[in-house]
């Protein structure tokens, strides 16, 4: 350009005049430059643009500088308009690029935060699940130990019933206490019979809703009326033993049958011993006791 | 020799003057700049400029059209300038679209963070 203008001034003044009038209009050019510079300051000016988009910032700066240089060297208006357009675009690109980089950085940070939160939620879920599992395990253990206890109790009962020679009858559970023995002509328990009474009391405590009937019997020796009284006394002896061991008195009825209903012959000593006995009938749950029929 | 040189000088001065009036300089036809701005526009479209930076994209396309028209009229200087302007506009469309999309993604993440925070505080 310079080369051309130099050459033109010497040989042809008219050509030079045409060139000058087409390439420069100082006021308009100044306006173009200052407007582009203002735009640069507004868009690419903030420090964040230099920080987040350094390359695009430099490009915008160079672009503006190119415009300024062209204006100083009196470039033509269309050239300056082109450079002003480029400057504006490059400034906006710098701004958008900076915004983009900033947003990308924010997203990275936000993703980290989100993951932390998800982790926190998960670990809380885990904690809750663990707590629930612990609770269930302890409930299961409780139920199991309850079951064990019940089984043990049932076994104990079965053993007890076996020992007490329990028999299911239509009158209820009949316990023949043949190991509970009485002195001849007396209503006092022979020593060693207490254990059987203990077991009976234990059994009754396990079934607190069942009533019982204690029936006393004698052998056939002696007066019948005497035996009647004696059998009743014997039943009473058991009753008071049971009461002493904590069985509620109103649950226990007594009955004396004298020498009736022998379970063995009265002809032998052993048979008579078996007839001097007490039987206990435990009513079926909710039933009244049925008395022995003659 | 001198006469010939002088004549050539006269002719060249005239030619140069004509060139100056029409566009200040003469250039060889070169469509590289057109190809470059076309590919910039394509790239901008690929990152979603149609949806997220329609104004910038339209401007780029209109500049490219002007560059094409000038090229067809063999006004290569003007064509180059329009092509450069088209390229810059397309670049702006691209980065604007990228920025808009990233902002939307950021909004999404931040929304989900809000939701998670609420879930945590509701426990």
From TrEMBL, chain A:
Signal peptide residues are: 1-26
Pfam families reported for this sequence: DUF4398 (PF14346), OmpA (PF00691)
Q: Gene3D superfamilies this protein is in?
A: OmpA-like domain (3.30.1330.60)
> Keywords of this protein's UniProt record, alphabetized?
Cell outer membrane, Coiled coil, Membrane, Signal
- Where in the cell is the protein located? Cell outer membrane
- Any coiled-coil regions, as ranges: 57-170
Transmembrane recorded as keyword:
no
A cellular component term from Gene Ontology for this protein is:
cell outer membrane
Q: Which InterPro entries match?
A: Bact_OuterMem_StrucFunc, DUF4398, OMP_bac, OmpA-like, OmpA-like_sf
The domain of life is: Bacteria
Domain named OmpA-like is located at 169-286
> Could you tell me what this protein is called?
Outer membrane protein OmpA-like peptidoglycan-associated protein
**What is the protein's species of origin?**
Pleionea mediterranea
Automatic annotation (TrEMBL), chain B:
Identify this protein by name: Uncharacterized protein DUF4398
Task: Tell me what organism the protein belongs to.
Answer: Pleionea mediterranea
- Give coiled-coil spans as residue ranges: 50-119
Keyword annotations for this protein?
Answer: Coiled coil
Q: Which domain of life is it from?
A: Bacteria
Q: Where is the DUF4398 domain?
A: 34-108
Q: Which PROSITE patterns match?
A: PROKAR_LIPOPROTEIN
Q: What is the lineage of its organism?
A: Bacteria, Pseudomonadati, Pseudomonadota, Gammaproteobacteria, Oceanospirillales
């Amino acid at each position: 350009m310079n080369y051309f203008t130099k050459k033109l001034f010497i040989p042809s003044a008219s050509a030079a005049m045409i060139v000058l009038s087409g390439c420069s209009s100082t006021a308009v050019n100044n306006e173009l430059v200052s407007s582009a510079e203002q735009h640069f300051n507004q868009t690419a000016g903030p420090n964040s643009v230099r920080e987040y988009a350094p390359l695009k910032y430099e490009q915008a700066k160079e672009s503006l500088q190119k415009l300024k240089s062209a204006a100083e060297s009196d470039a033509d208006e269309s050239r300056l308009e082109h450079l002003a357009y480029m400057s504006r675009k490059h400034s906006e690109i710098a701004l958008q690029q900076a915004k983009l980089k900033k947003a990308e950085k924010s997203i990275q940070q936000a993703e980290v935060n989100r993951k932390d939160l998800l982790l926190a939620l998960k670990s809380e879920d885990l904690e809750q699940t663990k707590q629930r599992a612990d609770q269930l395990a302890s409930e299961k253990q409780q139920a199991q130990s309850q079951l064990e206890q019940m089984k043990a109790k049932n076994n104990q009962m079965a053993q007890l019933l076996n020992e007490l020679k329990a028999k299911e009858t239509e009158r209820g559970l009949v316990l023949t206490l043949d190991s509970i023995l009485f002195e001849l002509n007396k209503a006092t328990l022979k020593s060693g019979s207490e254990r059987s009474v203990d077991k009976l009391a234990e059994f009754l405590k396990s079934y607190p809703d069942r009533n019982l009937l204690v029936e006393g019997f004698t052998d056939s020796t002696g007066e019948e009326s005497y035996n009647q009284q004696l059998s009743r006394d014997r039943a009473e002896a058991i009753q008071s033993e049971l009461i002493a061991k904590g069985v509620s008195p109103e649950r226990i009825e007594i009955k004396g049958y004298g020498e009736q209903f022998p379970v063995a012959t009265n002809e032998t000593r052993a048979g008579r011993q078996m007839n001097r006995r007490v039987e206990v009938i435990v009513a079926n749950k909710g039933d009244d006791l049925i008395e022995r029929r003659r | 020799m001198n006469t010939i040189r002088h004549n050539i000088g006269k002719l060249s001065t005239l030619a140069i003057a004509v060139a100056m009036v029409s566009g200040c300089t003469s250039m060889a036809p070169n469509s590289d700049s057109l190809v470059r701005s076309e590919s910039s526009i394509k790239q901008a479209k690929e990152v979603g400029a149609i949806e997220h930076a329609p104004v910038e994209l339209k401007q780029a396309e209109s500049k490219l059209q002007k560059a094409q028209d000038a090229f067809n009229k063999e006004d290569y200087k003007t064509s180059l300038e329009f092509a450069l302007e088209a390229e810059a506009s397309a670049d702006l469309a691209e980065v604007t679209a990228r920025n808009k999309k990233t902002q939307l993604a950021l909004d999404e993440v931040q929304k989900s963070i809000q939701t998670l925070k609420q879930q945590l505080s509701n426990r």
